[in-house]
Write a structure and sequence with these properties.
- It is a single chain.
- The protein is α+β, with helices and mostly antiparallel strands and 197 residues long.
- It is built from 5 helices and 13 strands.
- The protein has a 5-stranded antiparallel beta sheet with strand order 2-1-6-7-8.
- Helix 4 crosses helix 5.
- The longest helix is centred in the first third of the chain and has 21 residues.
């Protein structure tokens, strides 16, 4: 009986592992914040089986992206898009002068962004952190005060932020136990505690 159980568990583990490995990794464009939230890509491809080229025109400063989809090029204005997912599975949002902001936590409500500028010549590199309270909200610099101001009526959230995140704390920290960023965990806690009262 024990041997049968172990064989069954092994087979289930193999099936789950092969499913995870064969899941398509898609790339494409998000037209809206709602499309991003629902994982609905435009000009999408399965990056494992199709060729997909996305040109951001960063250095030329063009206000559009060029997507080569099924061998045909499409030009789409950056200001008409929410963002995109590349074939490595990274997600980005367009904002502020058609720049793209890497999203650190795409599956959560309060989104965090980390923009890294490399060292160029004598100009040192930099890292800038941003957030938006929702996918549809504007991007703003990540500070504890700005996060509190984004949720002006959630006083329980403010109290949890003060208690759990002392000055100097990394506001992008990931909470391993709850499998989400600490900011989003505290936001969720503030709402569940408020609803309980």
């Amino acid at each position: 009986m024990r041997t049968t159980f172990l064989v069954l568990v092994s087979l289930l583990a193999l099936a789950a592992n092969s499913t995870a490995q064969t899941a398509p990794l898609g790339g494409g464009l998000y037209k809206t914040a709602e499309d991003f939230r629902r994982h609905r890509l435009t000009l999408a491809v399965n990056c494992q089986t199709e060729t997909h080229k996305l040109r951001l025109h960063e250095f030329s400063g063009k206000p559009y992206v060029t997507v080569v989809h099924a061998g045909k090029p499409y030009q789409v204005a950056k200001d008409s898009l929410f963002g995109f997912r590349d074939c490595d599975g990274h997600e980005y949002r367009f904002a502020a002068g058609n720049e793209h902001y890497p999203i650190l936590n795409p599956g959560e409500e309060l989104l965090l962004y980390k923009v890294e500028r490399p060292t160029v010549g004598k100009n040192p590199g930099s890292v800038r952190l941003y957030f938006s309270p929702t996918a549809a909200a504007p991007i703003q610099p990540l500070t504890l005060l700005a996060v509190k101001q984004a949720f002006p009526d959630n006083h329980r959230f403010h109290d949890l932020l003060d208690a759990q995140l002392p000055p100097g704390t990394d506001l992008t920290a990931y909470d391993q136990m709850h499998r989400m960023t600490k900011l989003n965990w505290l936001l969720r806690q503030s709402r569940s505690e408020t609803a309980a009262h």
